[in-house]
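Give me C-alpha cells for this 118-residue protein.
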Amino acid sequence: MLDLDFTDEQRMLREMVSGLCAQYASIEGVRAMEDDPVGYSTEMWAQLGELGILGLTIPESHGGSAMSMLDAVIVYEEFGRALAPLPHFVSAVVSARAIEAGGSDAQRDEWLPAIAAG
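Here you go.
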C-alpha cells in the first residue's frame, strides 16, 4: 500500500519554510519588494542558502541537499502560500538542472556549489 503521509522531516521542512516566509515575506514585505531593485529579500535568500533550500535538488556531491521532488513540492507550496518573491525556481532549480545535465565536470564543480550556497 502506498503511504501518502508526510514524514517527520517533511513536516519540519514545511514549518521551517513557513516560518521563514512569515518572517521575510509578509504582505508588507512582499509589497515593499515591488519597488525594490533586487525584488526579493536578500536576508531570506541567505537563510535559504544556510538551510539547504537553495540546494534543494542539487546532489550532495556538489554541495546540495539532494531532497526529493516531494520535498520541493512542500517548499513551493509554502512559497506560494506567502507569495514569496524569490528567484528560487529559475536560479536554484532550472539553472542548476541545466548545468547538472549539460555542463562539463568543471562547470558542475564551479557552479552547483555556488548555487546551493546562494
